[in-house]
Amino acid sequence: MINNNSTDKSYTIAKKWVGKDERFLITTEKKQGVVFASNKGFEITKGKYVARMDADDVAYPTRLKSQIDFLDNHSDYGAVAGLVEYIPHSEYTDGFKRYVNWSNSIITYKELLNKQFVEMPLINPTTMWRKEVANKIGMYRSGDFPEDYEMWLRWLSKGIKIAKIPEIVLKWYDSEKRLTRTNPIYSNESFFKVKTKYLSNWLKKNNPFHPNVVVWGASKNSRKRAKPLFDNGVEIAYYIDIKLRTNLDREVIYYENISTPNEVFILVYMKQENARNEIESFLKSRGFLEGVNYLLVS
Question: What percentage of residues in the chain have a pLDDT greater than 90?
Fold first, then answer.
């Protein structure tokens, strides 16, 4: 247990538990924030595996056993997550419900790889990892970016295999005051900044036409999200869209006139999930393979 400048009675309560059960440890971290508190806790752990969750979440009774069993039986995997039961704070949380349903649909390592640049496919408080992997690759970093998304993108970029057990492991409670709603490091701009950095590195290794890509989505929002690619050494050859647009910085190609898979690599910058699904179905019908000829970026 980490006392991260607590101002209520948490520290007193925690000390009582330490006295009752020697399995509990308590220490103090003066640097404020989840990054410093989490990393401090990791430093003093002695276990083979490390699991995390947030203070207001409730783990299912089988959570730890199921994830330990997975890692015990899959030595080539460095981490494992799980599905969540979403507990909203009000009825006006359709965005988070959509995200949870999407995340819960992504299970395998291959799915995680292909969907890592849409949104964060792992719900952080469901994760468990090998301590030796974190010692080698590093834990959370502090900066102007979401620390959990950055860490998982970094681990995947280093070839660490991650998957999920296909069962609910956690009750994930939402809150109006959660950091993802209030802290600027979790803003859309921050997500796209760190996402584009790792996406650009991924393209260098996997895009046969590097540095050229084609962006599906010529709307103002899609072009805004894709613009940071230029700062990371990626060149947009042209846009694809369902509407022919003029007076843009690049040519726009009508979607039915797209090139063949052996001529382009496509990044789909489409926020709406239904639109992404329709585009993906169309690309597959034209012989495009996810992770080979195109990626969904959102």
Answer: 79
CB atoms within 10 A of CB 141: 13
- For the chain, the residue count is 298
Model confidence at 1, pLDDT cuts 50, 70, 90, reads confident
Say if CB 162 and CB 122 are below 8 A apart.
yes
CA nearest neighbour of 219 among 280, 145, 275: 275
Tell me the sheet residues that pair with 253: 240
Residue 246: pLDDT band with limits 50, 70, 90: confident
Instruction: Please spell the DSSP secondary structure of 61-101, one letter per residue.
Output: TTHHHHHHHHHHH-TTEEEEEEEEEEE-SSS--HHHHHHHH
Pairwise CA distance, residues 91 & 159, whole Å = 39
Query: In terms of domains, do 197 and 79 share one?
Result: no
| 180 and 197 part of one domain | no
d(CA 171, CA 231): 40
Residue 49: beta bridge partners? 130
| Side chain identity, residue 230 | F
For the chain, the domain total comes to: 2
| Domain ranges, residue 248 | 188-296
Q: CA quadruple 259, 260, 266, 272: dihedral positive or negative?
A: positive
d(Cα 145, Cα 193) in Å, to the nearest integer? 8
Give per-residue pLDDT as tens, 22-43. Answer: 889 999 999 999 899 999 999 9
Are residues 53 and 180 part of one domain? Answer: yes
Q: Which residues contact 66 (CB under 8 A, 6 or more apart)?
A: 82, 165, 167, 169
Do 57 and 121 reside in the same domain of the chain?
A: yes
Q: pLDDT tens for residues 106-124?
A: 999 999 999 999 999 999 9
**CATH number of the domain residue 97 falls in:** 3.90.550.10
How high is the pLDDT of residue 254?
Answer: 96
